Amino acid sequence: MSQRQIIQAFEQYQKSRMQFVQTVADMATRQQNIELLQKAGVISMLRPLLLDVVPSIQQTAALALGRLAENNDNLAEAVVREDILPPLVQSLASQNRFYKKAAAFVLRAIAKHSPELSQAVVSCGGVNALVLCLEDFDPGVREAAAWALGFIARHNASLSQLVVDAGAAPLLMQCLQEPEIALKRIAASSLSDICKHSLELAQTVVDTGAIAHLARMILNPDAKLKRQVFSALSQISKHSVSLAEMIVDAEIFPAAMACLRDPDDYVRKNVITLMREVVKHTPELAQMIVNCGGLVTVIDYLDDSRGNLRLPGVMMLGYVAAHSENLAMAVILSKGVPQLALCLSEESEQHIKVAIVWSLGQIGHHTPEHARAVATAGLLPKLLQLYMDASSSEDLQAKSKKALKSILQKCTDVPLLEPLLYEAPSNILKHVVCQFSKVLPKDSKARRLFVTSGGLKKVQEIDAEAGSPLQEYINAINGCFPEEIVRYYSPGYSEVLLKRLESYQPA
Amino acid sequence: MAERLIKTQLEHLKREYFCRNSQAEESAEKENQVATRIQSWYRACRVRAYISHLHKKAVIIQKIWRGFTARARVRQMVKAAYFIMKMNFYDEMAVRIQRRWRGFFVRKYIHSFYARKSYMEGLVIKNELVRRQLDELEDLQKRERDCVEMVKQQTAKLYQAHRLHHLISTKQCPGVFNSPFRTAPHEIELLLRRVKYQPPTKLVPRGRVSLLGIPGPSAPSFPETHGSPWNKSTRNCTSRPTLPPINKKKQQLSSDRTRQPSPPPQATPDPRQFRPPISCPPALHHHQV
């Protein structure tokens, strides 16, 4: 055979390989094809093409594998089983940048599904190879490597520790400082994934000087970058007081509140999450945020957002109010309680309601002033209803009972306590009656109100065992009124009078 | 005679002496005993008197001594009691002073009611201030975004006008957008009249370059646009702003395609950069503080 024919045969084979790989890559973009491709045994076909002579075929094969594994964890497991990872990882060190990008894409697509698959990637030496890619010149390669490392670190603390031990943190910090926005985003997201697991990891990241760089990026106009930056800051600050203080010292706060008016929902949510994590630790930090006007921004945020986005805002108000009575009063003065009442009536998810109820309990349990502020918003009957509603989850019932009890123990306002007399079950009724027995002996106007609104009548109708604390409270209440009135309102009084009438002989 | 007398006296004496001695000898024992008894009695009396004398004196001494020490002790006790009384008084007074001071100090500095009240009032004012500032900021940002949107839309319209330049109406024939049944020409017609036609050149780099030189929001980044990794000319650096090509060279290079005369006196802008004759609404630059 002539040389031309031989060369032609080889060229034709190469062309057909190229065409196959490109077609598979294009088909893999559509979800419905993936199952069919898997049944056709695409992975075992792509495996030898990964080691092909022609670089562009290698790259396209890797790209196709990545797309296949991305959305489908069966395929990802199949890729791991077919032992594709070791050659992929080895060639990661040597090839050109397109191949590196494609290979990093494949590693990322596999690692994202579960910790076991990430462990498989790690045990092939994937982490070291990816960290080497992080030092590459090409920003696209760095981005792909950072993304893959982020997905590996996301699952649990031990994987994050492996990533950090391989020296990823300083390199990710350098990626943060690059001008390309996409690289910054991915680096911030990976840092956030690393920090979220434990204090030591967060400390390692902070030691490389993350906070200053993240703080500088807050005013960047790109919304997705801001999401990741705030997410990273909140993951760092959640672990300890000193980290939260470092973040506050970086003078983030007045600037972060400007981001609370960003049109992007998740930027706002992450800012509020950051504020919540900072406020959680000590009263001084909470005080600092309140002094910057943080409360009003949170309340406006609660007004604007719906559903799950409200959860961090509600919890932030609860944490602020929990620290001290001053801060709880600050929350009340910033009109937090009506906003929380509105949220309670609008939301239907159980866990959000639990958070709102808990916050209300934290606000109201300090002094009678606070309890009055909560009760005037009409929240006591609502809390009672949540407690007694059979469709509330157990958590919701328990928390609303606890909140109701703690607020009731400080509530001294008779007109606000009265509606509870009629509907409450006996364990709550005990507290209500106890409060009455404390307030009524001292206040004559309250006594008059109590009688005219029918409260005394209701108290007489309560059935309590003799000697129980409830009976003692009832006796204390009865002791505040003259005997005729008590007898007048006691049940069955009309029969007693009629019996006297029967036995009466006119003179 | 005297001798007889003396003899009788002597005899008498002898007899007397003998009698007396024999009597004395007989009563000697008894007299001894009696004498002893008398002597012992006397001695006892003497001793007793002596002892009682001693006792009395001793009692006197002890009496005086004990009075002396007791008085000294009492004086000491009185001094101590006085001292304790004084100290109690001082303590009581010190407690009163400390109580007043601590109450004052705590009420003024630590749990100051007025400080708390003014803090709460200040907080409400500050909240309002922050809210207003944030509203203004949001307004500003919204206006900026709207302006950018508007500029983008204008650019798009101008680009459209550039592509549809051939639909401009001529003296003989009214264009599509200039229907004789309309009262006034359509806005696109007006745009078409304003746009200067520039022939497209080959050297302008691909990719959307907007008015401000910043790449558009769909800047390619792996792997969103996975346009051909086998195409070697994929752009890698996405945020480099592109400069407009220099006019003279462009005209020369494209001279083989379209014979253009020397460039008009005013600077010809890049065909891809449509400098719109409409400027941004004045409101944009108004608040750029």
Automatic annotation (TrEMBL), chain A:
Compartments, record wording: Cell projection, Cilium, Flagellum; Cytoplasm, Cytoskeleton, Cilium axoneme
GO cellular component, one term: extracellular region
Matches recorded under InterPro entries: ARM-like, ARM-type_fold, Armadillo, PBS_lyase_HEAT
Function according to Swiss-Prot or TrEMBL: Important for structural integrity of the central apparatus in the sperm tail and for flagellar motility.
Keyword set, alphabetical order: Cell projection, Cilium, Cilium biogenesis/degradation, Cytoplasm, Cytoskeleton, Flagellum, Microtubule, Repeat
Major location category of this protein: other
Pfam families: Arm
One GO term (biological process): filopodium assembly
Species whose genome carries this gene: Parambassis ranga (Indian glassy fish)
Gene Ontology molecular function: any one: microtubule binding
Recorded superkingdom: Eukaryota
Official protein name in the record: Sperm-associated antigen 6
Assembly description: Interacts with SPAG16 and SPAG17.
Stored PANTHER family: SPERM-ASSOCIATED ANTIGEN 6 (PTHR23314:SF0), SPERM-ASSOCIATED ANTIGEN 6 ARMADILLO REPEAT-CONTAINING (PTHR23314)
Claim: Repeat is one of the keywords in the record: yes
Automatic annotation (TrEMBL), chain B:
Cross-referenced SMART domains: IQ
Annotated PROSITE patterns: IQ
Pfam families on file: IQ
Positions in coiled-coil regions: none
Bias type Polar residues, positions: 228-241
Region Disordered: start-end pairs: 219-289
Protein name: Spermatogenesis-associated protein 17
Organism: Parambassis ranga
